[in-house]
Amino acid sequence: MTTNSRVLEHKRVVEISSTRRIVIGIVEILIGLLIYLAFAAKTTAEALTKFVMTPGGIDQGSMADWILPSKITLTVLAVISLVIGIFQLIRGFKKWTNLMVGICALCLIFGFLVWQAAGKQLNLAGMLSSAVLLAVPITLGAFSGILAERSGIINISIEGMMLMASMAAAVVGSVTKNPWLGLLGGILSSILLALILGVLSIKYKVNQTISGTVINIFSAGLTAFISQKFLQHIQGLNNPKMFTRVPLPGLANIPLIGPILFNQNIFVYLMFVILIILQLALFQTRWGLRLRSVGEHPKAADTLGINVIRTRYMGVILSGLVAGIAGAFFTLGSVGRFDEGMTAGKGFIGLAAMIFGNWMPIGAIGAGMLFGFADAIGSKLSLLGSAIPPQFMAMAPYLITMIVLAGFIGKGQAPAAEGEPYEKE
Amino acid sequence: MSEEKKDLGQEILKEINQDHPKTEHTKKPFLGKAAIPLLAIVTGLIIGALMIAVTSQTVYAAFGDSIGKGFVTAFTEIGTAYKALFTGAIGDPIRMIDAVKLGDAKEIRQAFNPFLESLVQSTPYIFAGLAVALGFRSGLFNIGVEGQLFIGAACATFVGYSITGLPAWIHMPLAFLAGALGGALWGFVPGFLKAKTGGHEVINTIMMNWIAFRLTEWLLSGPMTRPESGGMPISPIIQKTAEIPQFFPSPIRFHLGFFIALAVAYLIWWLLFKTTWGLNLRTVGTNPRAARYAGLSTTKSIILAMSLSGALAGMAGAVQILAVNRSMALGLSSGYGFDSIALALIGNTHPVGVVLASILFGTLRNGATRMMVVSSIPIDIVDVVQAIILMFVAAPAIIRSIYHLRKPKQEEQQIFLSGWGGQS
């Protein structure tokens, strides 16, 4: 079994071609130049940036404010990026390449914030805290994608499942006045859609992208229909009790990290729990090995006595389960009511996070956090009175997704048998 | 690669791509090909009827009285709704016949207006459906029609209102082409990324959609806003010279754009099936490995196909602005992007099929507006019905088992889409 697992891992070696090395190096140098020329050069020498390090309305785990000299900080960030870029261009970081790209991206984002908040104050902790919350549906969407795709089924209907679950959670939560039952209702509705996806793509061998589209159109139509026919007239159906913040004892008192990670609602904790379970189950258990083998080489798996069809159904249903939690987040963990089209493409961004994270749970959560952070910057900066139109800030996550897909993930790391219906001979 | 070798490859491809058992093909009756879509539509409408009955409170009240009364009420509810759907979509037959008998031109126009309005609603669908179909033919899934449509509309609007003093025969085509060009640009980007970096077009086109929404939001509330709008995101009204003409006086909106759509559909059919370029494109779409073997450039083909697909979507936006709306607001599209996917598939990714499917859905949507007024059934029921029809078309085995149809000897597979890895 260990040898099998090693063979499967073997295909996933990240190769970095010399063109990629050079392109990435140039991009990193450009980031450095951008930080220096666009941000640092335009800041006065005496300007101070004040970051508030405790989210508003929370008294546990508070931390003193950070007061940074804007120009010096920006220059340091620019130098870090330039050094990384030059080294990348000459020698290359090999397997640390993506990490270094990440550090440069962080320099860029942090530099941008320092520049925008020069001479003002910005609640950085509040921004991070809302970034974690915004990352929840994206990350869970990515987990949902991983579960289906590792078993060989492309699931582009995560968006539709989330939308349906958000409505079902709102209705069940309102009627029963119990958020836990609401969550359950959301999960069940999403699993139902996942079953349809499974039957269409496994039993009827419909092209998986098309069966996913069927579900997306169906749930957009049905949720809008029910919302207009019932939810908008009957208040009692769209007024669920929400999950509230639950500070974790002890952990919530850690400065900075406590308020951001351990003083959130149940969905944030669920996200971390699922991360750990998924990461362990996929790569440390027989179950995970089987799931992956069905996604990589179903014929071989079948020969070894693994039931391909059943394993794929399981992958799809679990994918629906996680998408259901992500959907319930919108109504029970964030907004408190159902609105038409409220998932706003988060399911698709989740798919992008899955690809960015290289079909690994740990990578997916990193990507999800990045997207969540980009979202949070957009909403906070418009409050700060930035000169950049808020619409352009709102484009950032989408642009980042495209750049990431184009440049940094390389090709062919998806499960090999993905998208192909399995035909037993 | 030498000329000769390439020619040989082309020959082989032509051989492979021919609908080889020609005799069998001609024997097949028209209904054989259309049976699945037709039955899918009928089944979809039946399920829609069930939905109307199940979500109606009056029906539940009647069932409370007695079961017989319940069924009667359910059927009358469905009857009223579908009658409204029909008269809203086609017109009231009695009024139409009376009008023709009377011979009054104005009355005839008004009696037939619902039908003409259905064609108006179908027009953007034809363009958008063709956009997706063209993508499918070349192995690409363009979910970005919505965004391409928005950018196309914005470009057409800009050319439409900002340029003055041009004669109509230059200005109108210019604005329309600007729309096509804007859409083409929005399709080119994901096409280029797919061909050069392998970034999957499904994700990239969706991302481009959201960028397009934000961009138009900014344009309409900033640089392109109507001065007297007071901050509302709406553009100025286009010049008279940029308008695509409507044939009849208001309120009848039937316009030249419908015929432009038919002409474009013919053009796409000709491109796909009568030119070498179309053959190459279809080969790349159905069998990329064979295409590479024959020395075709998949890169060029992918970029061209996505740009052209985007251009068609841009035309959908342009025609809506220039012929109907005459200015751009944010609520321009009612989900053309996803609808067009359904249209392309129901039309079997063939231009003729797409035109027919578009007219069907334009008609349904137009009728559903009236149904909403009469029976207060939300228009979104059309989406649900559409999804169900699409499901049946995609999985013909379900329809066959419902209606006990025999399985055809050879299943035709029209659409080949790759996984995220990009290469197959």
Structural class computed from helices and strand pairing of chain A = mainly alpha
Measured between the Cα atoms of the first and last residue of chain B, the distance is 23 Å
Radius of gyration of chain B: 23 Å
Give the biggest beta sheet of chain B: none
Q: What's the rounded overall pLDDT mean of chain B?
A: 84
Could you tell me the strand content of chain A as a percent range? under 5%
Percent in strands of chain B: under 5%
Number of strands of chain B: 0
Q: What's the level 1 CATH class of the largest domain in chain A? A: Mainly Alpha
- The first-to-last residue Cα distance of chain A is 25 Å
Which characteristics define this entry?
heterodimer, A: 425 residues, mainly alpha, ABC transporter involved in vitamin B12 uptake, BtuC, 2 domains, 3-stranded mixed β-sheet, two-stranded antiparallel sheet, 4% strand, disordered N terminus, B: 424 residues, 18 helices, 0% strand
Chain-wise SSE layout:
The complex is a heterodimer of chains A (425) and B (424).
Chain A: H1 2-10, H2 18-39, E1 48-52, E2 66-69, H3 70-90, H4 97-116, E3 121-123, H5 124-150, H6 158-176, H7 179-203, H8 208-231, E4 246-247, H9 257-261, E5 263-264, H10 266-284, H11 286-296, H12 298-303, H13 308-335, H14 346-356, H15 361-384, H16 390-407
Chain B: H1 3-17, H2 22-27, H3 30-54, H4 57-65, H5 67-89, H6 93-102, H7 105-137, H8 145-162, H9 168-197, H10 201-221, H11 257-274, H12 276-286, H13 288-293, H14 298-325, H15 336-346, H16 351-375, H17 381-394, H18 396-403
Helix pairs in contact in B: 3-5, 3-17, 3-18, 4-5, 5-16, 6-7, 7-11, 7-14, 7-15, 7-16, 8-9, 8-10, 8-14, 8-15, 9-10, 9-14, 11-12, 15-16, 15-17, 17-18
